Amino acid sequence: MAENVRQIPKDVHKTLTDLDVGDKFALFDEVYEMIEKEKDQDDDAVMFDCVAQLQGEERYFSFFYNYSIYGYEDHNYDPVCQQFEFTEVEKKIVPVVRWTKKKEINIESIC
In this structure, are residues 21 and 33 in contact, taking their beta carbons and an 8 Å threshold? Predict the structure, then answer.
């Protein structure tokens, strides 16, 4: 396992699912603040990608969790479906190119 990846204890991982942006939490004898929490959903799960900052430092860490969907709006934390990695990350701004429909031109008015 890479040096910048640590394993979150399984009993602690579930407690992280209750955190929101701005919340502070202790992990690995250090204090972190949740600074980002992105939610995505498909038919099988609700997935959360989270980023936390180590208090007092410019170091950032990412972790992931999901809720399995067992019926209409029935979300449950399933330990089997989790990734318990706490990975050091850095923010990079990446330009995105999107193709959009061009505004239609009235050819008759040109001729």
Answer: no
- Between CA 52 and CA 71 the distance in angstroms is 31
- Residue where the block lists tokens 């995505």: 40
Alpha helices in the chain (DSSP H): 10-16, 107-110
Mean pLDDT across the chain: 81
How far is it between the farthest Cα atoms of the chain? 74
Q: What is the pTM of this model?
A: 0.70
pLDDT band of 74, cuts 50, 70, 90 = low
Name residue 69's amino acid.
Answer: I
The distance from CA 73 to its chain's CA centroid, rounded to whole angstroms, is 20
